[in-house]
């Protein structure tokens, strides 16, 4: 297969990209320093009623900030870059490509508590396909930010549609939200499901049904690719 890497520019050959696809989020005008972030963690520890200077907590601010750098690395990543490498020689393939059971962890923008689950992503390619790992990478780029599940679902679908220009895109996300399971109403095990259909998946009830059937029929075949 011949591989093509598209340039990271504002306008791609088949149309412009929206801001959230073509670039990482713009930082706040005056970003706090790492020392200020660590100081904020110490203040939270004291607010909770503990002593931030005691032995077990003295190094916690540094560890928390380092963990946040990892958990929220999506703020430093560009979604379009994850889909920039495509391959030709798809021969006569004219069906959709489905990547199931993409595990992810994100954080609710309302409480900054984790929500986690699986994303299922499909697209019907036009001439070229993208590397399968790149779809999983795209999910992580958006998940590693403060999010709502609805927004996460829409962003993933929009990025695939804008960059790859396929015949259609389908995204289904199912997740458990700890802001509901470990606080508030305290209902563990509740799953939230969101979907987004674009193009042929939106227009064809048959494509939607096949997509959902393949996702729901995954069973123990986690991670298998259906084509």
Structural account:
This protein has 227 residues and is an alpha+beta fold. The protein folds into 2 domains: 3-22 and 78-226, GTP Cyclohydrolase I, domain 2 (2-Layer Sandwich), CATH 3.30.1130.10; 34-73, GTP cyclohydrolase I, N-terminal domain (GTP Cyclohydrolase I, Chain A, domain 1). Helices cover 37% and strands 25% of the residues. It contains 9 helices and 11 strands. It has helices spanning 19-22, 34-48, 60-71, 79-82, 132-143, 149-164, 178-181, 200-203, 205-216; strands spanning 3-5, 11-12, 15-16, 85-87, 97-108, 114-124, 129-130, 146-147, 168-177, 192-199, 225-226. Strands 5, 6, 8, 9, 10 and 11 form a 6-stranded mixed β-sheet that branches. It has a 3-stranded antiparallel β-sheet with strand order 1-4-7. The chain has a two-stranded antiparallel sheet with strand order 2-3. Helix 2 packs across helix 3 (60-71) and helix 5 crosses helix 6 (149-164). The longest helix has 16 residues, at 149-164. It is elongated. The protein starts with a strand and ends with a strand.
Helix and strand arrangement:
Blueprint lengths: L2 E3 L5 E2 L2 E2 L2 H4 L11 H15 L11 H12 L7 H4 L2 E3 L9 E12 L5 E11 L4 E2 L1 H12 L2 E2 L1 H16 L3 E10 H4 L10 E8 H4 L1 H12 L8 E2 L1
Parallel strand pairs: 5-8
Antiparallel strand pairs: 1-4, 2-3, 4-7, 5-6, 5-11, 6-9, 9-10
Helix pairs in contact: 2-3, 5-6
